[in-house]
Design goal:
The complex is a heterodimer of chains A (355) and B (140). Chain A is an alpha/beta fold and 355 residues long. Helices cover 41% and strands 15% of the residues of chain A. Chain B has a domain of 62 residues. The chains are: A alpha/beta (355), B mainly alpha (140).
Chain lengths: 355, 140
């Protein structure tokens, strides 16, 4: 009788835990809550301006534009109140703007890096200048967003870009053995044309699978065990939910841009070799003169550190810094230690250069 | 072990040992898998699987698209290609609107600068009627 009740109690406990677990996994967290206004749109792209909380006279005069990757939602930069890079920068006195590329539809399958770097981004920057009243601006590009901002900085060096921050930037594809994606998209194994003929755009689910398959045990098993073990810790559950909401919100990558990523970059390393031609213009990294901060995540498996360091010797910027930080591709900006290490460093670097 | 934990003020948790074993096993498994996925063999295998999937699904996908197109035509409804075409034209219109927005911003800037330098833009059109008169005279 006693033993039976122990077993029943245990089953009940497991059942309750399981329902909490299911709830945590299936519930979407409230994310991206920092107040903002929409100031510009073009096709799926949207430019937001965050409502300043610091009086104008105390704000940095040079506005900051955040440019995130094409295949994920940019609200990772504004994950949740109390743990948001956006909130941190707005409170630090920046006139802050965010470019959200949106999700490409079938009509956007031919969009290329050319369009993002020389059409969408310059138009968004024009609007930023009109709204902020400043001819100079800073730009922070993360992951694929760093490729686009680098292209812009090299192709339009006289457009007023004062400071460029590159986060986990995949720019150098020369080390084939050190980059797992390079192996996967090798032309012997991966038929990019066949994939794009079938789907038009690269489906978000496939990109998500690719990113998770780099560390399959952590992503498919360890991640859920971490939640299971911490179900009684609301802080951990909240953080897990917010991150899970972002991770499962996938965006396709425009077919034309995906083809360039595979053929021009992963296979042929055309950017670093100085052979990448964007809308008829060769991308010459030595034309970049903006002050440069490159942030490398030491434990990054998506953009290994070897991909981001080489740009330092290619640019003409006199003021440049390479900042290495322990952590992963997303963890350095959205992990629990980001607010103590990465954000203050970026803010401090920009503050002294935004006067 | 339990004495030590009791001394620390913590209850003995039999599941802790299991968790430690589990985590040790997972760590080893994770390292093996990271090494495995970063091999040519894995790249070749995953590439082949994707290729096979695309090859086998392609005829079905094409057949479904054909049937769907015919059905939409029967119901006088726009096809996917029609909708895509309209969307592309809408984007072109948006681009033109953005160009006009840029021009208006430039005009506004010029007017603001003129106003701030005291040269009222209202005073400038006075020259235009004179020019028109001059043209008329020339025509005669």
């Amino acid at each position: 009788m006693y033993e039976a009740s122990v077993v029943t109690d245990q089953l009940l406990t497991v059942g309750e835990k399981l329902s909490e677990f299911t709830k945590a996994v299936t519930t979407k967290a409230s994310i991206a809550q920092t107040p903002k206004e929409l100031i510009w749109t073009l096709n799926k792209a949207k430019l937001y301006r965050y409502i300043p909380v610091v009086p104008k006279e105390e704000r940095h005069p040079v506005p900051l534009l955040l440019v995130f990757a094409l295949m994920n939602r940019p609200y990772i930069l504004d994950l949740k109140p109390g743990h948001s890079f956006v909130e941190f920068m707005v409170k630090s006195g920046y006139d802050l703007y965010l470019l959200d590329w949106g999700a490409p539809g079938p009509e956007d399958k031919n969009l290329k890096f050319d369009d993002y770097a020389l059409d969408y981004l310059p138009r968004a920057i024009r609007k930023l200048k009109a709204v902020s009243g400043s001819e100079e601006f800073s730009m922070l590009g993360w992951c694929i967003g760093a490729i686009i901002t680098t292209l812009y900085a090299a192709l339009r060096p006289n457009d007023g870009l004062r400071n460029l921050v590159l986060l986990t930037a995949p720019l150098d594809f020369s080390n084939k053995d050190g980059i797992t994606f390079s192996r996967w998209v090798d032309e012997r194994y991966f038929d990019v044309e066949k994939v794009l003929a079938a789907f038009g755009n690269m489906p978000g689910e496939m990109i998500d699978y690719g990113a998770k398959a780099l560390k399959p045990v952590e992503n498919y098993v360890g991640n859920y065990l971490k939640l299971w073990d911490n179900l009684d810790n609301p802080q951990v559950v909240d953080a897990w939910q917010a991150m899970n909401t972002w991770v499962t919100d996938n965006v396709p990558l425009a077919g034309g841009a995906f083809r360039q990523l595979v053929v021009d970059l992963y296979r042929n390393d055309r950017l670093m070799r100085g052979e990448w031609v964007i809308r008829g213009e060769r991308v010459d990294l030595s034309r970049i003169r903006a002050k440069l901060l490159t942030v490398i995540a030491e434990g990054d498996h998506i953009t290994p550190p070897c991909q981001s360091a080489a740009i330092m010797s290619k640019v003409s910027s006199k003021d440049k810094e390479l900042f290495r930080i322990p952590g992963g591709h997303i963890g350095i900006m959205a992990g629990s230690g980001a607010g103590k290490r990465t954000w203050p460093h970026i803010e401090g670097w920009l503050a002294s250069r935004s006067k | 072990m339990s004495d030590k934990q009791a001394a620390n003020g913590k209850e003995f948790d039999p599941a802790e040992t299991f968790r430690e074993m589990r985590d040790t096993y997972l760590d080893a498994w994770a390292k093996t898998m990271v090494d495995t996925v970063n091999t040519d063999a894995y790249a070749k295998a995953s590439g082949m699987m994707l290729n096979n999937y695309l090859s086998t699904s392609s005829p079905f996908r094409e057949a479904v698209e054909k049937v769907m197109l015919q059905a939409l035509q029967q119901f006088s409804m726009p096809s996917r290609a029609d909708v895509v075409s309209v969307a592309e034209r809408t984007v072109n219109i948006e681009v033109r609107l953005d160009d006009m927005d840029a021009k208006l911003d430039r005009i506004q800037n010029v007017l603001t600068k003129l106003a701030s330098t005291g040269r009222s833009p209202a005073a400038r059109p006075a020259a235009k009627p004179a020019a028109r008169r001059a043209r008329k005279k020339g025509a005669k």
